Amino acid sequence: MEDACSKTMIEALGLTKYYGPFVATENISFSIPEGQIVAFLGPNGAGKTTTMRMLTGYLAPSAGTAKIAGLDVHKDRIEASKRLGYLPENGPLYQDMTPLELLEFFGEARGLDPRRLKDRIAAVRELCALQEVLEKPIGKLSRGLRQRVGLAQALLHDPEVLIMDEPTAGLDPNQIRQFRENIRNLGSRKTILISTHILQEVDAIADYVLFVHNGRMVFEGTPAELKEDGSLEEPFYRLTHVNGSTGAQAP
């Protein structure tokens, strides 16, 4: 996957996570070069969220190493976080805050100086189309608008890497289309990893696919290489139904 001339921006080295005797992920390894949009594909419970939490430093692995822009996310947590924007499936959006207040709060927490924070708020406000709702309570916004606020928060410090967990879950078709357009635009200047179980996401935005099932990598390649007879449905079914079973569920 990696171009010899490209810098590795996201790297998993044998990531493994145990919950007691249960194996959530086992020996997940991959590297993503600069400027790629990668779909982290798999059914619900495949171990995608667990892997993303280890990649972002929110969860310590039982074994293995996660790196962002060459930095170990556990040994160099602060420096790695400066290069990383993370949008979890249910992000930390405080319902009583306005988007402006939320962005100011996170910007100050990240140590952005007032002038840069003002510039960055203006940039993400424009990018995520938040002009009309910037001073409305987040709790009164639609799911699609809240997702835009979450994306704005993840992009506030202008990170090189963006990791998103099921970013279009719960959005209507128009909201999904807008969100995909945003991601394609961002992909021209950032490295992006998006977890999903929605096949249309892969076709719409991904340069490359990492497919996990039962906590293990079962495919790595381009969307075209994954397809069979022009479709992703049959390989998805085949890769997730071994001996007629979908297997155990991972967090």
Describe the protein in words:
This protein is an alpha/beta fold and 251 residues long. The protein contains 9 helices and 10 strands. The protein has helices spanning 48-55, 77-82, 99-109, 114-127, 143-155, 173-186, 199-205, 223-226, 233-240; strands at residues 8-19, 22-33, 37-41, 63-68, 71-72, 84-87, 161-165, 191-196, 208-213, 216-221. The strands form 2 sheets. A 6-stranded mixed β-sheet has the order 6-7-8-3-9-10, with helices on both faces. Strand 4 and strand 5 (71-72) form a beta hairpin. The longest helix is centred in the middle third of the chain and has 14 residues, at 114-127.
Short description:
With 251 residues, the protein is of the alpha/beta class. The chain is built from 9 helices and 10 strands. The protein has a domain of 67 residues.
Main sheet specs: 6 strands, mixed
Low-confidence blocks of residues: 243-251
Q: Please bin the fraction of helical residues.
A: 25-40%
What would the principal axes of the Cα set say about the shape? Answer: globular
Major sheet: arrangement of strands: 6-7-8-3-9-10
What's the oligomerization state?
Answer: single chain
Radius of gyration: 18 Å
Strand content: 25-35%
User: Helix count, per DSSP?
Assistant: 9
| Broad structural category | alpha/beta
Report how far the terminal alpha carbons are from each other. 27 Å
Q: Summarize model confidence as the mean pLDDT.
A: 89
The helix/strand series, from N terminus to C terminus, equals EEEHEEHEHHHEHEHEEHH
Number of strands: 10
